[in-house]
Amino acid sequence: MSWRPQYRSSKFRNVYGKAASREHCFDGIPITKNVHDNHFCAVNARFLAIVTESAGGGSFLVIPLEQTGRIEPNYPKVCGHQGNVLDIKWNPFIENIIASCSEDTSVRIWEIPEGGLKRNMTEAVLELYGHSRRVGLVEWHPTTNNILFSAGYDYKVLIWNLDIGEPVKMIDCHTDVILCMSFNTDGSLLATTCKDKKLRVVEPRSGRVLQEASCKNHRVNRVVFLGSTKRLLTTGVSRWNTRQIALWDQEDLSMPLIEEEIDGLSGLLFPFYDADTHMLYLAGKGDGNIRYYEIGSEKPYLSYLMEFRSPAPQKGLGVMPKHGLDVSACEVFRFYKLITLKGLIEPISMIVPRRSETYQEDIYPMTPGTEPALTPDEWLSGVNRDPILMSLKEGYKKTSKIVFKAPVREKKSVVVNGIDLLENVPPRTENELLRMFFRQQDEIRRLKDELSQKDIRIRQLQLELKNLRNSPKNN
C-alpha cells in the first residue's frame, strides 16, 4: 500500500492578511510608552480608542473610524484620570460608552458624543472607586447590560452594577496580580490567569473556584475561552523560556490536552479566538507577524494555517466586533495594529479568498449581536442565557437603541462581602503616596525643630530663673 499525505479540507486554509494602505491608517498618534501588558486600544463599529502618551495624568484618543489619515497634535482627548490609563473597553451593547481604568485606583465610564469629541473631555458620566491599588483590567459581561468586571493590583476582582453605580460582588481568591480575564459564551464562568502561576475557572457570582491548575511547566500569561467547546487556551512560557500555548478542558485542569512550543522569543503572546470560524490568532508583543490556526474537536485539535508577516513590531492589537466587518470583501477578522515607532494605527483584514461577491453564508453564521440577553438583576439572581444572535446579511448595520443612564448617587459607604471599600480611600496614585510620604517626613522634621527650639527656650528660662534666685537683691 503506497503512502499518501493527509490533506485537510478547510474553507479557511487560504485565509490571508491584508494591511490597509497608508491613507486608510491613523497617523501621527502619540501611542503610550507604558510597559503594562495590555493592548492600549479598543475598537467598535463606530470608534477607535487609543491610550496616548501624556503628562500630568492619563488620557486616550477617541477617533471616528471614517476619520483616517493624519491626526492633528491638538486633537481632543479623554483626559479625566489622574494616573496613567492601563485598559480601555467599549460597551458591547452601547457603542458610545467606553470604560477605562487607571493607576489612580478608579474605573470610569465615558459617554462619547455623536460624531466624536470636539473638545477635551474631563468629566466621566460615572466614577467607580473600590480598589485600594491601581486597576489593570476591565471587562464587560458578554450577555448582560451594565455589568462590568475590574481587576486591580490589590488582587481583587470587583463586579460593578452600573445601574446603581456600585460594586455588588468581590472575587477574592487570587494571591497575586491578575494578568488576564476571559468569559465563556454565556458569561456564567470566568477564567483568570495570575502572577502566582495559576489558571483558575471561577463562578463569578459566588466567587467560588471551580477548577484550578498550578502551571509549573507552563507559566500562564493569557487565557481565552474557546467559545462553547468547553475548552480553554492559554499562552505562556515553558520551563526552557520558550513561548508556548496549551489547550485545556475547562472541567479538568489537572493536565493540558496539548502543549505546543511556538518559538524562543521573549514577547508576550496575545491569543484571539473567533468562535464563528473556529480560528485562533496568535500575535506576539514586539513581533511583526500574526499566526493563525484552526481549532478542531478531535486530535490534534490545533491545525496551523498560515502567518501574516510585517516588518513593523506591534505594541498591541484592537479587534473589530463581527458586525463591523466588511462582509462584501469576505473579511472574517480585523485587527488594528499599534506601531509605536511610527505613531501609526494600521488596520489588518483577514480575508477568505472568494470569487463570488454575494453574501457567503458558510463563513458568516449567526453571531452575537448588539442586544443584551439579560438585565443586571436577572444575571445577579442566577439566570444564565446565551447571547442574542444576529445575521450579518441583514442586521449588521442595525444600531442599538439602548441608552446609558448614569445613576445619581450620594456619598455613602460601599459594603461588599462585609468590607467597606470606601473606608479610608487611599491616595489615587503611587506618585501621590510618595508625595504624601515626603510631606509627612517634612512635617516630622518641622515638628522636631519646633520641639528642639522649645526645649532650648525652656532651658534658657530655667537658667534665667536660677540666676534671679541667686542674685544679691533677692538675698
From TrEMBL:
It holds the Pfam family DUF1899. Residues 5-69 form the DUF1899 domain. The keyword Transferase does not apply. WD repeats lie at residues 78-120, 128-170, 171-212. GO terms for molecular function: actin filament binding. Residues 444-471 form a coiled coil. SUPFAM superfamilies: WD40 repeat-like. Keywords: Actin-binding, Coiled coil, Repeat, WD repeat. Belongs to the WD repeat coronin family. This is Coronin.
